[in-house]
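Quick start: read one record
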Amino acid sequence: MTSRQTRLVRAFVVSAAATLIAAVSHTIGGGAAPHALLIVAVSVFITPVAALVIGDRRSRTRTALTVALTQGVFHAVFQLLGSPTSSTAGASGADSHTHHVALALLTPAAATGATAAPGAMMLGAHIVAAAITMLMVWHGDALLRSITEWMQALLRPRAVGAHPAHRRPPRLRSVDIQAHGIRLSAAVSRRGPPPLLRG
């Protein structure tokens, strides 16, 4: 796997984890559950940008920036699309997506305690989600590297055992032809009649 492919895989894993945990925290924080297609779409479309941010080397700062970017994009897309949820029947846009009251805190007229509570709860849920995602991605990456190194170490001796080192063939011994020659010469007598007729 090339460094570019590794970077893309890491970026997709980080963006998918960040988007999924952001969706869960969004629901826990009091908002409606985002639609599954939105989670998948944001995870896929943010991957190239996340690959640029995350870089080739492991860095906690870059990983944290990637998590924050992914969750921010997911949140913005969710708001811009009018809060598409898996079950939008029976809930109006204002009722199903009350966590965006936090954006109204930027205006001078919004300072009521009733609107600040859902915004603070949602903001806290997103901060917790970012921290959980960061820990999960960082330790998951380290765990995945350890498993990969362990598997490579496990498979390496088998590969060596399957292909043993080339051994030199044993030296060939020359056949003693002279011994055969002596036996033949002893059996053949050049003088006199054959041994059967001598008697």
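DSSP finds nine helices and no strands in the chain.
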